[in-house]
Amino acid sequence: MEQMENFAMKKTGFTRVLSCILVILTVLLFGGCELLGATSNNGNPAVYIYQSVIELEVGQTVQLQVISTDDSEITWVSGDESVATVVKGLVMAVGVGESVITALGDSAMSSCTVKVKPKQQQSAPPVDSDTPDVSGSGEVFVLVINAFTLGVGESVTLQATSTSNDTISWSSSVPTVATVNNGVVTALSVGETVITAQTSKASAQCTITVTFSSSDDAAKPGYRLAWRDEFNGTALDTDKWGYQLGIQDHYGTSTGPVFWGNEELQYYTQQAVTVSDGSLRITATRQDMPDGRRYSSARILTRDKASWTYGYFEARMKTPTGQGMWPAFWMLPQPSTTSNSNNIYGSWPASGEIDIMEARGRLLNRVDTTLHFGGAWNEHDYAGTSTILVSNTDEWHTYALEWTDSDLTWYIDGRQVFTVNKSRWWSQDKSNKGQSMPFDQPFYILLNLAVGGNYDSKVEPDETFTSATMYVDYVRVYEKI
């Protein structure tokens, strides 16, 4: 979407952080410790006893440790009090046999088997050096949550504590599926891996299953999902998006050209953005607005929140037809500081612009894909094409861009429609053709619905126009594995 603003660049990251816990416990008098968990009504783990099988001698005691994720009060029950009693988790072995100790929460329960044997007159044999020391001087790892499912591109933080302050090392059995760095697991591709936390004495494991949801079927082989917004909430996620308001950009100490540099007719507001029923909606409405504008609409962007150099960028959209409508899904370079909207290559167009999709509403089944570049304002150059769709733009279509260090390739509904090689573009001087500049720096995403403007020869909506809406089902960004 052609405009006259100046931009620079900065890469930001995105992770969806969840929580999963690895606990290392000092255990006295018992071994064979495993997690025995229970599930609540919503399928999430709710009550845990760290130990699942405990061996005691008559007269010995052990304190069971429990987590209740819903913070409900725990009631303790012994299945056979002639074998073992339990009070607030403290188990006393009173007779030879087995008893099941149960912890009851409001919505879940978990149990532990206590095996009681006669009191021995001599000490137990030494523990094999390859197994954790459970004599009271060592430690064992016990998983509170021993499995987790992530979507590609998501992350989960596993937490581990060593009661002896031993160093904890982390590893992934299949690092191409998910990596782990100091407990932070990042899902890279579909599959399964086992994350291990280990000290010199013991270890614990958490199985990570990485999947694509049913909405991720369009993922490209060789890429991982790095960022997305599925618009499943009830409001715009301002951790991912910001608003541009009014008639011109204000960034740090910089002010962009009035009417967005294109003589556009709308005044941008937050109120023109809604999220409902799994989609983003940007609505242009005929109404009197400040600065003589006769329409309201919206423009959102990921500037300062997320930007990328190279990748596969995709959005599923349906955009309004009708005279004067100008919907766009596009990218601009990320500024390097909030006090300077220029980037290392200078102002637009030398800094570059990537239009993944834009449309003239009066051309019902045609969309444009364009790359802008060049030198000073009067040396604007571009490469682009116009594509005829099978159906009109007011039906759902998927628009995508694959961006590498040498080419930019556009896709519509999975079909390749246009490619530009770096031999075509340039920045600052035409002698720079064949280099990666300016498309070798982070760019951010914009979505907007403009009204009128230079793009379609200043055509305005007709007098019957009241409002029109642009729908976005999702926006996803994939990075090379």
Structure explained in plain terms:
The chain is mostly beta strands. 0% of the residues lie in helices and 46% in strands. It is built from no helices and 38 strands. It has strands at 17-25, 36-39, 45-49, 53-57, 61-63, 66-68, 75-78, 84-87, 90-93, 97-104, 109-117, 140-143, 147-151, 155-159, 169-172, 178-181, 184-187, 191-198, 203-211, 223-229, 242-244, 250-251, 254-255, 266-268, 273-276, 279-286, 295-297, 299-301, 311-318, 325-333, 353-358, 366-374, 380-388, 397-403, 407-412, 415-421, 443-451, 467-480. Strands 20, 24, 25, 26, 27, 29, 34, 35, 36 and 38 form a ten-stranded mixed beta sheet that branches. It has a seven-stranded antiparallel beta sheet with strand order 21-28-37-30-31-32-33, with no helix packed on it.
Summarize the structure.
This protein is mainly β and 481 residues long.
Count of DSSP strands: 38
Overall 3D shape: elongated
Largest beta-sheet characterization: 10 strands, mixed
Give helix % range: under 10%
> Which structural class best describes the helix and strand composition?
mainly beta
Number of helices: 0
Compute the CA-based radius of gyration.
30 Å
Give the overall average pLDDT: 80
Percent of residues in β-strands: over 45%
What distance separates the N and C termini? 30 Å
* Poorly predicted sequence stretches spanning 5 or more consecutive residues: 2-50, 122-144, 213-218
